[in-house]
Amino acid sequence: MKKWIAAVLSAVLLAGCSPAFAAESGQAAPKDGVTLNVYNWGEYIASGSDGTMDVNAEFTKQTGIRVNYTTFEDNESMYSKLAGGGASYDVIFPSDYMVSKLIKEKLVQKLDFRNIPNYRYIDPEYRNLVYDPKNEYSVPYTWGVVGIFYNKKYVKEKVDSWKILWDRRYAGKILMFDNPRDAFGIAQEILGYSFNSTNPEEWNAAAELLEKQKPLVQAYVMDQIFNKMSSGEAWLAPYYAGDAATLVADNPNIGFAIPTKEKTNFFVDAICIPSSAKHKKEAEAYIDFLCRPEVAAANMEAVGYSTPESAARKLLPEEMREDPIIYPPKSVLKNSETFRDLPEGTGLLLDTLWAQVKMGSSGDTGTLLAVLGAFLAVYIGIVVYKKIKRKKELQ
Question: At how many degrees (to 10) do helices 75-84 and 365-394 cross?
Answer without folding.
Answer: 50
